[in-house]
Amino acid sequence: MPLTKPPPPPPKPTFDEFSTPEDFNDQFKKKETTKYMNPCAVEEKQSMKCLDVNNYDKSKCEYFFLQYRECKKNWVSQNTDHGDES
């Protein structure tokens, strides 16, 4: 039985406009930080973008990883109860 070539993939969809409102960042910054919000979202996004741009070569993104780790460390330390309730 001869092999057949698979059909081409469907075309990628195109979107006319962004679904995120223009003032999204301003509105997001005004929100109170809770345990469900990530105050390190910018650092996280920058590190992921760096990986995308550099073909997932982690060695080229150490600066962004360091920024993200420091932000998370500060966030966790602010939200951790240092009192012992034994």
Automatic annotation (TrEMBL):
Protein role: Required for the assembly of cytochrome c oxidase.
Alphabetized UniProt keyword annotations: Disulfide bond, Mitochondrion
Protein name as catalogued: CHCH domain-containing protein
Location of the protein in the cell: Mitochondrion intermembrane space
Biased composition (Pro residues): 1-13
Region annotation (Disordered) ranges: 1-23
Organism: Absidia glauca (Pin mould)
GO cellular component terms listed in the entry, alphabetical order: mitochondrial intermembrane space
Highest rank taxon of the organism: Eukaryota
Swiss-Prot/TrEMBL GO biological process terms: mitochondrial respiratory chain complex assembly
